[in-house]
Design brief:
The protein has about 150 residues and is an alpha+beta fold. The chain is built from four helices and five strands, in the order H-H-H-E-E-E-E-H-E.
């Protein structure tokens, strides 16, 4: 009200304050956008279930956004690959071979392969499995790829 009444020295302070507020707003939006990009990357790295340690540090809105992104990605993957869909999260890096040797890091239980074979994944057991079937378990920390 003082600036409107004729005090021109306050106009510069008001403009400066307004520019500071706009800058702070841009910084907050950039920070939030970066967090969303990281949450989106977690879906591709960790799978559809976030570890509790990660989820603990997320706000309720971020968890909701993750769940909506997860559902949207699942809907898209089902629509692309015909009847059974196409899992785009499997081969993030191009495979060098179709089968890999893995070591089980913890007890997991029974694991079924496409040909109907059931394998018991016990701690410290080693198996020769199809890469695409065990890549998700490697990311979850159940299996470890043994490099020769």
């Amino acid at each position: 009200s003082d600036a409107k009444s004729g005090r021109t020295d306050l106009i510069f302070l008001i403009r400066f304050r307004h520019c500071c507020l706009l800058r702070n707003q841009r910084c907050v939006l950039a920070y939030l956008y970066d967090r969303l990009l990281r949450i989106r990357a977690l879906r591709w790295e960790c799978g559809s279930v976030l570890p509790n340690t990660v989820q603990f540090h997320m706000s309720a809105e971020e968890v909701e956004w993750f769940n909506r992104y997860k559902k949207s990605l699942a809907t898209y993957m089902r629509s692309v690959g015909g009847e059974e869909g196409l899992d785009l999260t499997q081969d993030i890096k191009p495979p060098k071979s179709l089968y890999i040797e893995v070591r089980c890091l913890r007890d997991y239980g029974e694991f079924e392969i496409d040909d109907g074979t059931t394998i018991l994944l016990k701690k410290n057991s080693q198996h020769f499995l199809p890469r695409w079937k065990c890549e998700q378990l490697i990311r979850q920390g159940v299996l470890e790829h043994i490099l020769s």
